Amino acid sequence: xxxxxxxxxxxxxxxxxxxxxxxxxxxxxxxxxxxxxxxxxxxxxxxxxxxxxxxxxxxxxxxxxxxxxxxxxxxxxxxxxxxxxxxxxxxxxxxxxxxxxxxxxxxxxxxxxxxxxxxxxxxxxxxxxxxxxxxxxxxxxxxxxxxxxxxxxxxxxxxxxxxxxxxxxxxxxxxxxxxxxxxxxxxxxxxxxxxxxxxxxxxxxxxxxxxxxxxxxxxxxxxxxxxxxxxxxxxxxxxxxxxxxxxxxxxxxxxxxxxxxxxxxxxxxxxxxxxxxxxxxxxxxxxxxxxxxxxxxxxxxxxxxxxxxxxxxxxxxxxxxxxxxxxxxxxxxxxxxxxxxxxxxxxxxxxxxxxxxxxxxxxxxxxxxxxxxxxxxxxxxxxxxxxxxxxxxxxxxxxxxxxxxxxxxxx
Length: 411
Ligand SMILES: Nc1ncnc2c1ncn2[C@@H]1O[C@H](COP(=O)(O)OP(=O)(O)O)[C@@H](O)[C@H]1O
Ligand SMILES: [Mg+2]
What we know:
Elements: E1 3-4, E2 12-16, E3 19-22, E4 27-32, E5 38-43, H1 50-68, E6 70-76, E7 81-84, H2 86-92, H3 103-109, H4 115-126, E8 134-139, E9 145-157, E10 163-172, H5 174-232, H6 238-265, H7 268-272, H8 275-290, E11 293-298, H9 310-331, E12 335-344, E13 347-354, H10 371-381, E14 385-390, E15 396-403
Parallel strand pairs: 11-12
Antiparallel strand pairs: 1-2, 2-3, 4-5, 6-7, 6-10, 8-9, 9-10, 12-13, 13-15, 14-15
Helix pairs in contact: 5-6, 5-10, 8-9, 9-10
The structure holds adenosine-5'-diphosphate and magnesium ion (MG).
């Protein structure tokens, strides 16, 4: 059936609902109505017969199925006949001229480990139960393995309620699965790389902290002693005494700075007293340096953080350290709260909240800042996750939740 469609150019005609075809402008001619009166209307020289219309629709459908890698099947119960769409033959890699589709034949093409699920699904559908879409591996006669998503199992019943036909659709998701696997693999590689870099960085920090402590600190202590001894010895002139006093002051200042650098590089408390004590220290130092009030709330830990293995405790400590750095640099906060809590058995949560200006909304992601990214990757590498919530003018909260046991290495 052809009808001109208002709003479309005359050469475009709606062939039937859902199908649009291009055709020459219809020839307007007079035709006799059944009652003998003359009527005028568009009559196409290309009107389709019902058979042609059907063929055209089938061609459209086959093309759409091929583009979408989606095949369909129909199982007629009365004569136990199964019919497949052209695309389904392609998905299963079988020749439509020789392969006779049947439930048993399909069963043989399914990976042995996935056959049970297929059987159960067909049984459920025949009993009239809904069947959720499921993934299944198939093995083509060539030996190639594909992954499909079977959905449908639509049931038609006769008047007595008996199942007359089953209808289903099968989507070839092999490429999608491959991409998903590649993506997971790449992400796993990245996580392992981050974890390895973290380990190397921690070891390097420990080494530098040790050298600063054992070497530089000892030398500075030596200078202090020498200066003190010189001032306590036979009297020297005023200018020399003042110079010695300046040396003492400057050296004391360098000792204090070095001590701070050593603490930042590797907090002793983390190794000796555990995460809670180390965070307590961190909060105190942060307050002293920034002038922003900072409190640690760590209750009902019941030894959970003591049970944290060293790398996980270090991860949480470094996350807190970076979050506080950000507060000092960006937040203009008056108060910061660090909270350490056991949220579920075997899982610890660290939260750093400030009452500052909040993160700017809508600013494009910069590719030269790694603080937030580093925190997120650290949490992931420890088998946990990190989230950030922030509102303009209402502060920022960074939450990291990680298991107390290390994550299994990502394959
Ligand atoms: N506590 C915070 N308060 C306000 N803004 C923050 C806070 N933490 C992070 N930001 C915003 O997020 C951005 C990215 O942080 P980050 O990745 O650590 O990079 P950097 O600190 O080097 O800028 C910061 O530049 C800042 O705009
Ligand atoms: Mg930062």
